[in-house]
């Protein structure tokens, strides 16, 4: 039996069909947009993860580099301290010398400079009459092999003479000790005082200059 449509129902059906079509179109549009987003995320996510991994690796490398630089800076700015050090060497004629101190600190700006506390130098240390010179403080240069002494300098020439001064310069290469400050002392022949002095050939010859005063003792 065929159903008969009223006039109102006939007009409503096209409207319903149009509404359903609009809904389907809207859903299809939403699905397309969602598909595009998913595709975009699928393409971008691996690159984002790779970028994160590279950033973490770069940060770790940077931290390691900065830590190494910090260690280098700390090492470069930290003075090297030595207790009871001993330095050995030979002069231009092959004679040995020995330098000692109670404490030594290597300069942070110039590694050739060593600051010494209570230094003592022995020239021709392997010989029968070595020259000994000591002071309160000193600076030794490893590049020039020069030793500068100040403060209560005591010089013993190895032949029974002892002299005191406020300053001494020791050229370990030439085996020469010089002083430009007042010196006074005593030897086998008597007492002597002068404004400057020099010890040559590791004690073989001692000279005085400037207001020399001597007192020879008869024995």
User: How would you classify the helix and strand content by structural class?
Assistant: alpha+beta
Q: What is the rounded distance between the termini?
A: 166 Å
Order of helices and strands: HEEEEEEEEEEEEEEEE
Average pLDDT over all residues: 82
Number of helices, where a helix is a run of at least 4 consecutive DSSP H or I residues = 1
Strand residue percentage: 35-45%
What's the CATH class of the largest domain, please? Mainly Beta
Give the overall form.
rod-shaped
Show unreliable segments. Answer: none
Computed over alpha carbons, the radius of gyration is 46 Å
The CATH superfamily of the largest domain is Lipopolysaccharide (LPS) transport protein A like domain
Give the tally of β-strands: 16
Helix share of residues? 25-40%
Tell me about the largest β-sheet.
16 strands, antiparallel
Quickly count the domains: 2
CATH architectural label of the largest domain: Sandwich
What is the fold named in CATH at topology level of the largest domain? lipopolysaccharide transport protein A fold
General description of the model:
The protein has 219 residues and is an alpha+beta fold. The chain has two domains: 1-78; 80-216, lipopolysaccharide transport protein A fold, CATH 2.60.450.10. The chain contains one helix and 16 strands. The N and C termini lie far apart (166 Å). The mean pLDDT is 82.
């Amino acid at each position: 039996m065929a159903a008969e449509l009223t006039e109102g129902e006939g007009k409503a059906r096209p409207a319903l069909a149009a509404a359903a079509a609009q809904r389907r179109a809207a859903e299809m549009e939403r699905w397309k947009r969602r598909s595009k987003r998913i595709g975009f995320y699928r393409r971008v996510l691996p690159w984002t993860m790779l970028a994160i991994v590279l950033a973490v690796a770069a940060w770790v490398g940077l931290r390691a580099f900065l830590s190494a630089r910090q260690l280098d800076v700390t090492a470069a700015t930290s003075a090297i301290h030595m207790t009871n050090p001993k330095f050995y060497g030979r002069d231009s004629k092959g004679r040995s010398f020995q330098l000692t101190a109670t404490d030594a600190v290597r300069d942070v700006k110039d590694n050739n400079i060593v600051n010494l506390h209570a230094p003592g130098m022995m020239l021709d240390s392997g010989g029968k009459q070595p020259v000994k010179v000591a002071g309160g403080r000193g600076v030794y240069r490893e590049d020039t092999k020069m030793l500068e002494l100040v403060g209560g300098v005591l010089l013993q020439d190895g032949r029974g003479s002892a002299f005191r001064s406020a300053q001494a310069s020791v050229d370990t290469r030439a085996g020469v000790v010089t002083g430009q400050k007042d010196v006074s002392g005593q030897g086998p022949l008597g007492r002597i005082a002068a404004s400057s002095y020099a010890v040559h050939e590791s004690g073989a010859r001692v000279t005085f200059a400037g207001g020399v005063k001597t007192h020879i003792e008869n024995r």
